[in-house]
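Example 4.3 (complexes with small molecules)
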Amino acid sequence: MLDTRQIGLHAYYLGTSWWRKQSREKLRQTGQLPVCSLFYHRVADAHPNPWSISCADFERQIRWLQQEFELISLPDLQRRVSSGNNDRMAVAITFDDGYAENMEFAIPLLLDLGIPVTYFVTFGFMDGERAFPHDLKRGIPLPTNTIDDCRWMAEQGVEIGAHTRSHCDVGGIADRATLIDEVVTATEELSEAISRPIRYFAFPYGKPENMSQAAVDLTRQMGLKGVCSAYGAYNFPGEDPYHIQRIHADPEFIRFKNWLTIDPRKTSIGRGFKFLD
Ligand SMILES: [Zn+2]
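Answer. The structure with zinc ion bound is encoded below.
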């Protein structure tokens, strides 16, 4: 059963779909179609929570994405943004945190379908024993990925990215040594553990206040290729390609479709948000 809010969203989605199609066409003709990046956390049927999606709902989203978009890697997204020109609807898929259950359905499905994926893991939670504080708070310690999981994914072509050591609010770190440990040392240790270079970093929580110029400077000094936020914004051609703005892959399909078909109410979010070089 749909509640009033969902009915409202369906009405909005359907009511604006023609107009939205026209505006996408205009953006396509001028090479100004934004490129989307999605973030998921956990795909599993047990213990549903706000950062999980069921296997069936995930597969439904992926099948729809396959029909409607080119599914691309983060480097490809950045190329389109930095070229200043994009005339094809495209989405880059990412995951945050490092939940073990993603190995059961989500990652095998994406690999089977040949869909690029970047998988951000929190280095301090990869010994198979510690659960994330946000899960402990709910009384349900969910299993996390191990180094072996990440090694295996990397061998299959999944891009492994860094997501700090302790899943901290990077924007709130005042102490330089802590910042270096969370952003630099944890990333280096992850790279060493999986014997692969790490190219991307995703800020936990990912709102503007959870990021900092000092942290971005450190990622540049390490030679990373980009950082990801998570406050829901599109990546328009010509904007800063180093900062990849992502959209939550909402388990509610209508909200998910609403974002990805370019909601005109949301196109100004994050425009011109640029870290210093
Ligand atoms: Zn996270």
